[in-house]
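Our collaborator T.R. sent over the components below with a one-line note: 'Predict the complex.' Nothing else. No constraints on interfaces, no templates requested, no preferences about which chain binds where. So this is a plain run: every listed entity goes in together, and whatever single assembly comes back becomes the starting point for the next discussion.
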Amino acid sequence: MTAPDQPETTQNLQVPPEHARVWMARGARAAVSIPAFILTAAFVGYAGLARESGLTLVETLAMTGLVWALPSIVVLTGAISSGMGMIPAGIAVALASVRLMPMTMALMPLIKVPGKTRTWQLLIASHFVAVTAWVFAMKHLPDMPREGRLPFFIGFGGAVTSFVFCMTGVSYLLVESMPGMVAGALFLLTPVYFLCSLWGAARLNADRAAMVAGLLLGPVFFIYLPGLDLLWTGLVGGTIAYIGTRIVRRGLS
Amino acid sequence: MDGSTAGGLLSETWWPLAMIIVAGWFATDVWRWLGVFAGGRLREDGELLIWVRCVATALVAGVISKLILFPQGVLAETPLWLRLAAASFGFASFFAARQRVFVGVLAAEVFLVAGWLLLDAMAS
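Returned assembly:
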């Protein structure tokens, strides 16, 4: 944000194909980071829950790689271990994952080079949309030249996913020898990490207001409208935050 | 885990994987794909996108407070006030450390484990 943009002006014009690989490598290198480390720890905590819920190693890993969104993974684990049918489980997971659509929508204008980026490239990149990579991308991508953003994001997402995938498998095998308090502490790690990083990624007052609204409304809807609670929290909390801050910004127009 | 209805051992192996693919992978990635198709038409600084980001942020915030208030597994054994205090302490430390996520997470963890050990010591 504060770095001078001067050296980047030439890259902004046109970037030959080999630069994409350079940006991808840069993304992979940026993945060696505190957020990725914390996410890994959260998945180590999840491996404990998966084993406790009776999932096999293959199932745990398939879920980590294919779903790649911790809240949805936690919902699906609960659904499988309680013997829920495929349709209700799918609906529950889909509701827990709705937030990925607005998140992906918000990311697309950042990583897309109009008239150049192919849709299939965006579809591949979209699989890495989850809180960690999204927060990191929303914060750092605007400072990069447009052409570098998509390969950087894919490099970052791919590296984080592969590393977390391996560590989840390793910790699944080791978790039996882990004391209960360590596993419990690992479970608190996820929400506190989400809490801090979401605030860090907020760019406007609207984002911060939405976060506060979601924190307060989440438990209320969970008690009164279980199942659909996350969807309502997002729609009601987000809309209140948007309208409230819009009135502050532009008055009642 | 209920494989007795269809085909014994085979369905016991394949049913959870089918669940993961349909109820997990598809139910999650379909939103990402929809986001790709819908997001291409949004401008980066448009009013609609501000609203969309508000909805996404509020949703994730809802997940956060659910994980703290209604946790799963071993963490559910801790009292609610301890989890809230640990999370608040972590968030306050995050600000005190100029918004460094690592500090916030570490502070919350130290607070939780210290409180947990203290409660265990008092109980025994």
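Summary for T.R.: DSSP finds four helices and no strands in chain B.
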